[in-house]
């Protein structure tokens, strides 16, 4: 990809926040409604943690190598098994806005970190921090850019209906941050509701990866497809099997020489050549090897909290 070939896009952040866990393990609490989780098999906890630590380190190095600024924080706690997925507890937005979210699993509420927010305030222009986490005692949850896939260009928040995305907080968030909420139902091939939107949908500048077959309502599916296609975005339909391989759990980033699509090696292997060709018309494919992290039911998108803020 030639430098400057694709103009910068508000959809693709130039920086990300990552958490490097020292005691990673798939979370038994979240396994209740996360059908993407898997058992660690023959690996013991020490080996799982070692492998996960190394995978996060390699992802950070690969992102820095293509020019994506990577803020990495260490997590030495044994009480935060899912901390490697920071995109669920905070999000950042152009104009200097930050949101902090209420989490459904009790174990995940410990992941929120003041040092991450302080870094954002120090290194970037932050005008306000809106904290919704106080709504947890009322049983109201909205798990960040896991529950919502945000179209920063057309200002739409796409949300799969679930216990991880309460409509009351969603309306508050969309009103405050100026997004239009677009809620839909999605089930996997067994009829199990999808727990997070970002496992079946990735919105990039010029294309969308979407688990079309998982969308339950035909009219809603057609409406959402029209929303993407009318301004000229290419919709890349993903099969249920491709979604299960995390092909939808990707994120477009702004690298040194243009836009890149960060996704796992497993996700890339699940894509057909023609699907990859559509993506490569506007972004370079950047596969990252994270098989241990994926045991926890999330992949590359979940690992990266995009920084949509201006540097100081």
UniProtKB/TrEMBL annotation:
Signal peptide limits: none
Superkingdom of origin organism: Bacteria
A Pfam entry, by short name: DDAH_eukar
Protein known as: Amidinotransferase
Species this protein is from: Aliiruegeria lutimaris
Phylogenetic placement of the source organism: Bacteria, Pseudomonadati, Pseudomonadota, Alphaproteobacteria, Rhodobacterales
């Amino acid at each position: 990809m030639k430098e400057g070939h694709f103009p910068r896009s508000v959809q693709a952040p130039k920086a990300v926040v990552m958490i490097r866990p020292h005691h990673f393990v798939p979370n038994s609490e979240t396994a209740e409604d996360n059908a993407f989780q898997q058992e660690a098999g023959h690996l013991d906890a020490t080996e799982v943690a070692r492998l996960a630590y190394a995978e996060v380190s390699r992802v950070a190095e690969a992102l820095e190598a293509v020019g994506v600024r990577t803020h990495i924080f260490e997590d030495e706690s044994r009480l935060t098994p899912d901390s490697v997925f920071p995109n669920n507890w905070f999000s950042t937005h152009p104009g200097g806005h930050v949101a902090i979210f209420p989490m459904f699993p009790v174990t995940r509420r410990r992941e929120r970190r003041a040092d991450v927010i302080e870094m954002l305030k120090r290194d970037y222009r932050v005008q306000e921090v809106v904290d919704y986490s106080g709504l947890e005692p009322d049983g109201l949850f909205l798990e960040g850019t896991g529950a919502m896939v945000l179209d920063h260009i057309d200002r739409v928040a796409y949300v799969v209906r679930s216990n991880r995305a309460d409509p009351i907080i969603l309306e508050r968030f969309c009103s405050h941050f100026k997004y239009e909420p677009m809620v839909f139902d999605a089930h996997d091939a067994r009829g199990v509701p999808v727990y997070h939107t970002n496992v079946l949908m990735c919105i990039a500048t010029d294309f969308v990866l979407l688990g079309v077959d998982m969308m339950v309502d035909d009219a809603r599916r057609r409406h959402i497809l029209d929303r993407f296609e009318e301004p000229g975005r290419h919709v890349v339909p993903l099969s249920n099997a491709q979604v299960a391989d995390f092909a939808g759990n990707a994120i477009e980033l702004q690298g040194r020489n243009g836009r890149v699509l960060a996704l796992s090696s497993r996700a890339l292997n699940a894509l057909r050549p023609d699907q990859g060709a559509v993506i490569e018309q506007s972004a370079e494919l950047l596969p990252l090897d994270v098989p241990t992290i994926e045991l926890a039911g999330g992949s590359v998108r979940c690992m990266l909290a995009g920084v949509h803020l201006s540097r100081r």
